[in-house]
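Worked problem 6 (solution included).
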Amino acid sequence: MPLYGTLDLTAVAKTLPTLANLDTEAWILPKAEMLQLLIEVPRSSTDGLLPKAMHPALPSYVILALTRYSESPVGPFTLAMLRLGTRAGAHPRGLMLGAVASSDAAAKELRNRWGFPIEAGEVKFLRRHDRVMGTVKKDGKTILDCALVDPQPVSGTDVQYINWVTAANAPLDGQTQTMLIQVDPKYTFYKAERGKPQVATFDAAAWNAPNLELASPIIGTCCTVDTDLPRIRFVMDPLKPVFQGTRRIRESRVDE
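Solution. The predicted structure is:
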């Protein structure tokens, strides 16, 4: 029998972002620098984080991601995110657990347009000759200090970024309801590097995952890409298996 999550999102609906509608326009985000670290975690430490509609990844892992956007509709900003590896049916997905943006404007727009579980804070992305480093602070406290160590060039075709899923409330069929929203950026690679993940500080509670424990590093990448935040195409019922509860909102990822 397939395994499913145990979290009933409807029971925590009041804590989730609420979108005014599902019609946000796409953002084009050129020349973004993306640091992504995959870390294996004990499956027991992810209990209660995964919605009932989704399957746990085996083995369990999380994605620590920091992205420096040089251009956006709200100006330059840096985004940090924690995603839990999961599956929607047969498709790998990264469930957003927590996020921090370096500007209030970016945090507000990402929360209101796509339903990111996000706050504003201090997010830094720094490149040295032997590593790429990321730090995140909230209220003056460091909640993440990580790095990609000894990055080596690889082809962009060797890097795979999976689509994201976030939980939010949004109007559908005349009423506001809790749902899972797919966010599926595209990527055009200019530069790609691969190396070893290193995490010096990780405050799980600050990322809305108080029992999460980091275990073995898997792989890390740092890439320069043209990317986007597209129009919302798919939403999912958080209580039904995705093959039953997925709904297409529109055909195109971009403005129609």
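Discussion: The longest strand covers residues 187-202.
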